[in-house]
Specification:
This protein has 137 residues and is an alpha+beta fold. The protein has helices at 37-40, 68-75, 77-90, 101-131; strands at 2-7, 12-16, 48-52. Strand 1 (2-7) and strand 2 form a beta hairpin. The two termini are 47 Å apart.
């Protein structure tokens, strides 16, 4: 079953047969049953299954974990985790030896500025090597 959407008035998720889902990621999904008699009761749009929000309290109705939007946002999580890893290990944010909120914020700001300056420098260096006809760094 593929998430089709949600009905806010009835507070329900709507799941449908993936064969009829226009945005299904499968290439040419097929159904093993002839004319969907056994699986979808012969419906032209496929079987629709509704699940109430109250039956799934672990799922956030605003951004359900089984939606495509959530999956796209969650795939970006690894990028953010890598950046945090680089900041903590490479830019001395693992242990901050400063006292007071302003001192820590200043230290983090300097680390972030350093990260941006180094990224800008690397981009400029790569652009120059491409213009000069050399291999990228």
């Amino acid at each position: 079953m593929e998430l089709r959407g949600s009905d806010r008035e009835k507070e329900q998720y709507i799941f449908t047969c993936p064969v009829f889902h226009s945005k299904a990621k499968q290439d040419g999904p097929t159904c093993p049953f002839a004319k969907h008699v056994e699986c979808c009761n012969g419906a032209t749009q496929g079987r629709a299954f509704r699940v109430g929000f109250s039956l799934t309290p672990q799922v956030d109705p605003e951004l359900p974990q089984h939606s495509r939007t959530y999956k796209a946002l969650y795939s970006n999580r690894t990028i953010i985790e890598r950046i945090f890893g680089i900041m903590t290990d490479g830019y001395s944010l693992r242990r901050v030896h400063k006292r007071g909120k302003q001192a820590v914020e200043a230290h983090v700001d300097r680390c972030m500025m350093t990260m941006h300056i180094m990224a800008k420098w690397r981009t400029a260096k790569q652009a120059k090597s491409i213009l000069d006809g050399q291999a990228t760094v």
